[in-house]
Amino acid sequence: MQIYKVGGAVRDRLLGRPVSDVDWLVVGATVEQMQAQGFRPVGADFPVFLHPKTGEEYALARTERKSGRGYGGFTFHASPEVTLEEDLVRRDLTINAMAEDEHGALHDPYHGKVDLEQRILRHVSPAFAEDPLRVLRVARFAARYAPLGFEVADETLALMRQIAESGELQALTAERSWKEIERALMESEPQVFIEVLRSCGALNELMPELAHGADTLAALHQAASHQQSLPVRWACLLRGLEPTAIKALNQRFKVPRECQELAVLVGEFAECADEAWALEPSSLLELLQKFDVYRRPQRFEEFIAACEMAAPDSDYPQGIYLRGAAEAARAVEVKSLVEKGLTGKALGDALKDKRLKALEAYKSA
């Protein structure tokens, strides 16, 4: 039995980046031998075990064969006869197909270290084209390592284009696709993710609504530079699309509710916010009501942030004005109206009237 550290932990150590999760590969062992040493099996599709003390994942060396469509269309074979090289060749990129043994020696049969040094994202073998999810994964790695100068190899981009043209991307589940999209959006250069998908034809297959959305990439880049939240980044990417297109994307990938809501609101009201100073107090109040700034102030703040990211150099004085308007409306007390005995519609009308007067005073100040 031989145990190797594999994948991202090896890659990031060589890059001098922090290593968070460690994956372990076990060569020459059986399921029974692993269990006899106290490892707990957790893999449903292939043998993966949890270390009895550290809880880290240990996978038996395995090979795989394409047996159906999509990300899950594979048959796995794990046995003591599977070699380290046979396991590593099934991985996506050469920089992810390196291993370290217990003595710290590097095992690099597919020259991942050279590609790391040359800043190239290159597939390991032609089997890359069998897994459509790898198109999104490579685009995500491109977004992550863009600040270090990494680019996708031409031959890998060609395989990604082949996958896009095959229709296999349509077999990906919404959950798996969104997981990659979400992780990519939170990288330091998320616009690169979209650019890579566009360059290989995958964007037109997955998100055709964004096929010509170059302007939104600048806003997405700004959002990442300002370390904005996932909902803000998703809203920046979708800004400028028609409401029907935004809703279609939200539904296609089963996007989390907070991301869905903000994207729809930004799509509907961003232009209104851009003209904030021209809004009459009644229209300003209606805008604040739409966002429920009294109970959900964070959502309005994220809306303003998304508008700021689309402005040149993120210079958006309208944001200060809108925040001030929200504060003026929120400052109106309900207690005094309740003490007067107002309830129901009468209370709602009186509260709206007071908030309108507060906004009139704010606008004229």
From TrEMBL:
<dbReference type="GO" id="GO:0016740">
    <property type="term" value="F:transferase activity"/>
</dbReference>
<keyword id="KW-0692">RNA repair</keyword>
<keyword id="KW-0808">Transferase</keyword>
<feature type="binding site">
    <location>
        <position position="91"/>
    </location>
    <ligand>
        <name>CTP</name>
    </ligand>
</feature>
<dbReference type="InterPro" id="IPR032828">
    <property type="entry name" value="PolyA_RNA-bd"/>
</dbReference>
<comment type="similarity">
    <text>Belongs to the tRNA nucleotidyltransferase/poly(A) polymerase family. Bacterial CCA-adding enzyme type 2 subfamily.</text>
</comment>
<feature type="binding site">
    <location>
        <position position="91"/>
    </location>
    <ligand>
        <name>ATP</name>
    </ligand>
</feature>
<feature type="binding site">
    <location>
        <position position="21"/>
    </location>
    <ligand>
        <name>Mg(2+)</name>
    </ligand>
</feature>
<dbReference type="InterPro" id="IPR002646">
    <property type="entry name" value="PolA_pol_head_dom"/>
</dbReference>
<keyword id="KW-0694">RNA-binding</keyword>
<feature type="domain" description="tRNA nucleotidyltransferase/poly(A) polymerase RNA and SrmB- binding">
    <location>
        <begin position="149"/>
        <end position="211"/>
    </location>
</feature>
<feature type="binding site">
    <location>
        <position position="23"/>
    </location>
    <ligand>
        <name>Mg(2+)</name>
    </ligand>
</feature>
<keyword id="KW-0548">Nucleotidyltransferase</keyword>
<keyword id="KW-0819">tRNA processing</keyword>
<dbReference type="Pfam" id="PF01743">
    <property type="entry name" value="PolyA_pol"/>
</dbReference>
<feature type="binding site">
    <location>
        <position position="137"/>
    </location>
    <ligand>
        <name>ATP</name>
    </ligand>
</feature>
<keyword id="KW-0479">Metal-binding</keyword>
<keyword id="KW-0067">ATP-binding</keyword>
<dbReference type="InterPro" id="IPR043519">
    <property type="entry name" value="NT_sf"/>
</dbReference>
<feature type="binding site">
    <location>
        <position position="140"/>
    </location>
    <ligand>
        <name>CTP</name>
    </ligand>
</feature>
<feature type="binding site">
    <location>
        <position position="137"/>
    </location>
    <ligand>
        <name>CTP</name>
    </ligand>
</feature>
<feature type="domain" description="Poly A polymerase head">
    <location>
        <begin position="4"/>
        <end position="122"/>
    </location>
</feature>
<dbReference type="InterPro" id="IPR050124">
    <property type="entry name" value="tRNA_CCA-adding_enzyme"/>
</dbReference>
<feature type="binding site">
    <location>
        <position position="140"/>
    </location>
    <ligand>
        <name>ATP</name>
    </ligand>
</feature>
<dbReference type="Pfam" id="PF12627">
    <property type="entry name" value="PolyA_pol_RNAbd"/>
</dbReference>
<comment type="function">
    <text>Catalyzes the addition and repair of the essential 3'-terminal CCA sequence in tRNAs without using a nucleic acid template. Adds these three nucleotides in the order of C, C, and A to the tRNA nucleotide-73, using CTP and ATP as substrates and producing inorganic pyrophosphate. tRNA 3'-terminal CCA addition is required both for tRNA processing and repair. Also involved in tRNA surveillance by mediating tandem CCA addition to generate a CCACCA at the 3' terminus of unstable tRNAs. While stable tRNAs receive only 3'-terminal CCA, unstable tRNAs are marked with CCACCA and rapidly degraded.</text>
</comment>
<feature type="binding site">
    <location>
        <position position="8"/>
    </location>
    <ligand>
        <name>CTP</name>
    </ligand>
</feature>
<feature type="binding site">
    <location>
        <position position="8"/>
    </location>
    <ligand>
        <name>ATP</name>
    </ligand>
</feature>
<feature type="binding site">
    <location>
        <position position="11"/>
    </location>
    <ligand>
        <name>ATP</name>
    </ligand>
</feature>
<keyword id="KW-0547">Nucleotide-binding</keyword>
<keyword id="KW-0460">Magnesium</keyword>
<feature type="binding site">
    <location>
        <position position="11"/>
    </location>
    <ligand>
        <name>CTP</name>
    </ligand>
</feature>
<dbReference type="InterPro" id="IPR012006">
    <property type="entry name" value="CCA_bact"/>
</dbReference>
<protein>
    <recommendedName>
        <fullName>CCA-adding enzyme</fullName>
        <ecNumber>2.7.7.72</ecNumber>
    </recommendedName>
</protein>
